[in-house]
Amino acid sequence: MTSSQHADWNAQVDWRTGTLRARTPGAGRRTGAWRPPPQPGTMPKRPLTFFETLDGGFRLLRFAPGSTFGIALIVQTLTALLVALAITAVAVGSAGFLMRTLFSSPDAGLGLNILLQTGATAGSLASLSVGQLLSGFSAVAGDSAFGTARMSLREVWRRLAGVRLRLIGLTLLCMGAHVGALLVLMLPGLLLLLVSPAAGMVLGTLGFLAWLPVTAAAFARFALAGSVLAVERTGVREALRRSWALTRGSFWKTLGQLVLAYFLSSQVVSLIMSPVLTILLVALLALSIFLGVGGGLTLTLAAVLFGGLGVAMAAFAMASGALLFAYLCGTVSCVYFDRRMRLEGYDLVLLRRAEEAA
Predict the structure, then answer these.
(1) How many CB atoms lie under 10 A from the CB of residue 159?
(2) What is the C-alpha to C-alpha distance for residues 128 and 132, in angstroms, rounded to an integer?
(3) What are the residue boundaries of the structural domains of the chain, listed by start?
(4) What Å distances lie between residue 307 and 89, 194, 302, 304, 316, CA to CA?
(5) pLDDT tens digits for 49-89?
(6) Which of 68, 90, 135, 336 could, after both became Cys, cross-link 226 (CB 3.0–4.6 A)?
(7) Do residues 181 and 175 touch, judged by C-beta distance below 8 A?
(8) Could you say which residues form the signal peptide (predicted)?
């Protein structure tokens, strides 16, 4: 090889002028050390399919049990205590009036039963507003689930510093809106009860049936507000506006995901509760028979046994309800991240974050 051929072999093109020039030492070689690709997290860094969103709720339960099930159990216990105190206060304060009414009117018992069933159904649906608070915890933990770092409940609580009161305010606002809409729609029927109980009952039932689609639509459009507030650290009004914008164009998909998540969690809870409650009842019955045959079953012991069974059933029911809310709110946070990926390219932010962490 001649010197000119050797020079041409070692030359490179100057793309600005189109001429050959001497190759820069080290040109064409990669600079910097080799880095492995980002490790996959619990959640995929891409838009989620319909059923991947539902599966994401179970993944978050396994990834961050304290920030999903733990906080749900705490909130469930506090809520149950407050509701029990309120019901006890109302029952004690109006016991005489209720007894006089029930004995004086034969239709009062039927009306009271329908009213209690309606109130229980409305209360269970309005309690879904607590999901705004719980989804905030799930969303903060879910944001780290796209990587490999796990977040405990204490770390999530620390991360929510500055927005905790806003999350509580958002929860109370949504619950008040659901209950207020129910009162407005049922108020004509309640007023008509004073004149015509039958007509008032029919009109009140129609108002309750009209409230169901209204509260379902509001729940689907504003369900992401808690996640928005916790992750993006916005105000309450901005969180509601962002939730409305993120669900625009996917209302039926979002509603279907949330309804199906609620149905699946309810079925899982019922599958868990049924055998456990059966075992508790059979064990109590066997113990009662054994003590009764042996002559050791006294009235005090029977009261202790049935009281212990009641406490165990109540504790298990609260744990089951917490599991339901934890999965549902985990699914809500997955819907939030999926909508951000599809509308705002949030998956690119997650990939860039994983590359920097690697």
Answers:
(1) 19
(2) 8
(3) 50-351
(4) 21, 41, 8, 5, 14
(5) 988 999 988 889 888 898 899 999 898 888 878 877 877 77
(6) 135
(7) no
(8) none
The pair of structure tokens assigned to 170 is: 């958002």
As given in the structure block, the two tokens for residue 141 are 């933990």
Please report which confidence band the pLDDT of residue 200 belongs to, taking 50, 70 and 90 as the band edges: confident
Cβ-contact 133, 171 below 8 angstroms: yes
Q: Which letter does DSSP use for residue 148 in this model? A: S
Segment 326-340, tens digit of pLDDT: 999 999 999 999 999
Rounded Cα gap, residues 201 and 195, in angstroms: 11
The closest of 222, 71, 227 to 140, measured between CA atoms, is 227
How far is residue 353's CA from residue 358's CA, in Å, rounded to a whole number? 9
Q: Could you identify the residue written with the tokens 């019955």?
A: 285
Written as one letter, the residue type at 246 is L
Name the residue with tokens 């999965």: 327
Q: Which two structure tokens, joined as six digits, stand for 58?
A: 């179970």
Do residues 332 and 138 touch, judged by C-beta distance below 8 A? yes
Question: Which tokens hold the place of 189?
Answer: 């029927």
Whole-structure pTM value: 0.77
Q: What pLDDT was estimated at residue 253?
A: 92
